[in-house]
Design brief:
single chain; 234 residues; eight-stranded mixed beta sheet; 8 helices
Length: 234
């Protein structure tokens, strides 16, 4: 979609992979996008109208192939889920699984997360935001590409309801320390004592990426932060 009102980030936290989509993934994009997909708009969506009900709203940024997002939508039908992923094969697979499971509580974006948050998500509309195992960009020259930066956290905070939760996880310790530093300096409040990580796998589903990492002996760091007041509008 082209709209002069929509901004585009000069530095992206991802590089689009040129992986080939399977026939099933291509077919899912073609046949199921109208049912589950959301396109970038210049004004926020009305989620009550979109899902035809009032419910908890949970957003996952970077859902990969969609396994954990599909499991959440299946296991918690009383809540509504929104997923954001830039890589078309993952979106295609998630669309296919959403249709196979006949899910009515799931919508997907195939766009940059910052653009979606800026233009499509109403302020104070989300009960939880999940950011699980984002690219850590380990090389120092690439640190500017890390998604978790002060401006991004402030944007997420605006979209959370009072009491809403921002849950992050990584298996890369330098990125975990970076996340902790950024979150501790933000308007959000650590659900655990200051400067401390949450217990590993705190109140979340284990992802396939995480399972592979655990088999390789990787440690996992979780961070859980809460929006505590309406004054947090930075």
């Amino acid at each position: 979609m082209t709209n002069s009102k929509l901004s585009f980030r000069p530095i992206r936290s991802y590089v689009l992979r040129q992986g080939r989509m399977s026939d099933a993934q291509l077919g899912a994009h073609r046949h199921y996008w109208s049912e589950f997909g959301l396109d970038l708009t210049a004004t926020p969506f009305d989620f009550d109208h979109l899902f035809n009900r009032q419910a908890q709203r949970i957003l996952e940024i970077g859902f990969g192939m969609g396994d954990s997002l599909i499991a959440l939508a299946k296991n918690f039908p009383e809540a509504d889920f929104i997923g954001i992923e830039v890589h078309p094969p993952g979106v295609g697979r998630c669309l296919l699984q959403a249709k196979l499971n006949n899910l009515s509580n799931l919508k997907l974006f195939n766009k940059d997360a910052v653009q979606v948050l800026e233009h499509c998500i109403p302020d104070q509309s989300l009960d939880k935001v999940l950011l699980l195992f984002p690219d850590p960009w380990p090389k120092k020259k690439h640190h500017k590409r890390r998604l978790v930066q002060p401006d991004f956290v402030a944007l997420v905070a605006k979209k959370l309801k009072i009491g809403g939760q921002f849950h992050l996880a990584t298996d890369w310790q330098p990125y975990a320390d970076h996340m902790l530093s950024v979150l501790e300096a933000s308007v959000l409040q650590n659900q655990f004592p200051k400067q401390q990580f949450a217990p590993s796998q705190f109140e979340r589903i284990t992802t396939k990426f995480e399972t592979r990492g655990l088999k390789l002996g990787h440690q996992i760091w979780d961070l859980v932060y809460i929006r505590v007041s309406a004054a947090n509008n930075a």
